[in-house]
Amino acid sequence: MKLLVVGAHADDTVLNAGGTMAKCIRRGDQVRDVTFSIHRGVSLNYKPEIKNEHEAAMSVFYGREPWEIKAKNTNFSFRLENFRACGDAFEHGASRADLRRMLEEECGGFEPDLVISHSRLDSNQDHAALASEVRRVFKKKSTIYEFVFPWNHTGLWPNMFVELSMIDVDDKIQALRCYSSQERPDHHYMKFDVQMAWAQSWGSLNGWEAAEAFILQQGLF
């Protein structure tokens, strides 16, 4: 299987689908992470260290150095784009086309079976805008799952679950530890016990040890 995970900010893919990425990489699937901003919020909040943090997180999953992951002869890769900020760029009339163009490049060269990204109902404008472009590019091409991120949208209930082992969950938490710049009192979702509790909670709904939850936006079989 070919899996493409798309995030607006450097920690989004790990937060929302890190366990699934770890599972798929471990079983030999081709996995690609595409992240469109190395910082969170507007340009005044720019944190250059997040680029290094994200590369370190990807290395946890792939068990390789960043330069090895980026090599063309590997099954696993990631792409990091330094936008000023997704939301700020969109407000100034730029970069929706850029997002779409880069997504089309990923689709053309990778042709994923499954794409996982943000929900169009996410209250974060960066997330919602990227989700719309993902839907536009991969319509009729790939199955699409949307992240379930309770802190940004309430009232949505997942309808797709990916069973995880505790090894998968541990890999996700280890990758999250790389984002030390994001450890703030208001970022309670970055707490490792919170992530463990969510994984076990979603798993318990299906009689599993752990799971990640998603919303099926489009299914192609």
Structure notes:
Helix 2 packs antiparallel against helix 7 (166-176) and helix 5 (96-110) packs across helix 6. The chain has helices spanning 12-26, 49-62, 66-70, 86-91, 96-110, 125-138, 166-176, 192-204, and strands at 2-7, 30-35, 76-80, 114-117, 143-147, 160-164, 210-218. Strand 1, helix 1 and strand 2 (30-35) form a beta-alpha-beta unit. The longest helix is centred in the N-terminal third of the chain and has 15 residues, at 12-26. Residues 40-46 and 82-94 have low confidence and may be disordered. The chain has one domain (2-218): LmbE-like (Rossmann fold), CATH 3.40.50.10320. The chain has 221 residues and is α/β, with parallel strands linked by helices. The protein has a 7-stranded mixed β-sheet with strand order 3-2-1-4-5-7-6, with helices on both faces. It is globular and about 40 Å long.
Largest sheet: 7 strands, mixed
Q: What is the CATH class?
A: Alpha Beta
CA radius of gyration is: 16 Å
Q: Kindly state the mean pLDDT as a whole number?
A: 80
| Broad shape | globular
CATH fold-level label: Rossmann fold
- Work out the number of β strands: 7
pLDDT under 50 segments (min length 5)? 40-46, 82-94
Helix content: 40-55%
Distance between the first and last residues' Cα: 12 Å
